[in-house]
Inverse folding.
């Protein structure tokens, strides 16, 4: 039996009480939509973005309400949600403010490091009466985290440039979930001196001299093998004859999706970095 006196605090300090059995959730965060299903809350999810593609095929039955940033406000209103789940990085505040005019409960999330998954599981599980399922995910995550940390502890650290866009080139700052997840396996992102969390950059010689490896993410830009070859050619010119930088593809869902997929993500990075398994 749930304790109605219990409360849960989200990423901006907003306090939430347990939801009733009639909860109706619209989620604007792809990885958290997947988490809701993993917690057994799929029947409560009444709306999702077009980027909320997991788990298949269950999520296909949930109505789309636009993208993470271009939300169809009237469509959300028609769905009459009791709760809206958003993320500080992925959703724009003016849109969330507009939705807050008719959605009673706005749950704000902001995982910024791998271990932030634990309070995330407990926040969502606690609000929606899935505390036991949340603790099961916590145990599974911690087991993968400790195994990955232990296996990668002896690996020499490398400086890794993680690219998420081209024309212009864009990367991630150290103050992001992605960078901290990469750091867990010994891949440190370069310090760029920018206040932006996802800064633009030039592939200049002074930067590339620091870099041991370049990772091309599958999202948000869909890098493919042809981009790997193009970048290798470009880097061979920029590096002024220095030793070749390794360039490879990486599955962006495994590095940027917190929630239940983060468990698989740690296993993926463990294999790619610590066991030497090539993964794209």
């Amino acid at each position: 039996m749930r304790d109605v006196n219990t409360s849960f605090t989200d990423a901006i300090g907003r306090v939430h009480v347990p939801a009733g059995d009639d909860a109706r959730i619209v989620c604007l965060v792809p990885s958290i939509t997947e988490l809701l299903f993993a917690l057994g809350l799929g029947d409560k999810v009444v709306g999702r973005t077009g980027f909320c593609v997991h788990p298949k095929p269950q999520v296909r039955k949930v109505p789309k309400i636009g993208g993470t940033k271009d939300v169809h406000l009237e469509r959300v209103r028609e769905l009459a949600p009791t709760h809206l789940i958003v993320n500080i990085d992925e959703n724009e505040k003016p849109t969330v403010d507009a939705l807050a005019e008719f959605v009673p409960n706005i749950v704000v999330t902001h995982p910024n490091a791998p271990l932030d998954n634990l309070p995330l599981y407990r926040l969502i599980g606690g609000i929606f009466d899935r505390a036991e399922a949340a603790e099961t995910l916590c145990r599974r995550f911690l087991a993968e985290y400790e195994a990955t940390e232990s296996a990668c502890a002896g690996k020499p650290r490398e400086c890794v440039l993680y690219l998420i866009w081209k024309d212009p080139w864009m990367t991630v700052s150290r103050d992001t979930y992605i960078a901290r997840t990469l750091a867990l396996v010994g891949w440190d992102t370069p310090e760029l001196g920018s206040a932006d969390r996802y800064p633009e950059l030039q592939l200049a010689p002074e930067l590339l001299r620091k870099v041991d490896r370049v990772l091309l993410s599958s999202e948000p830009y869909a890098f493919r093998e042809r981009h790997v070859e193009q970048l290798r050619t470009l880097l061979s010119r920029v590096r002024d004859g220095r030793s070749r930088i390794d360039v490879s593809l990486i599955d962006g869902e495994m590095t940027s999706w917190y929630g239940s997929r983060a468990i698989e993500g740690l296993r993926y990075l463990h294999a790619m970095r610590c066991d030497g398994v090539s993964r794209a």
User: Anything to note?
Assistant: The chain has ten helices and eleven strands. The CA atoms of residues 83 and 105 lie 5 Å apart. The chain has a mean pLDDT of 94.
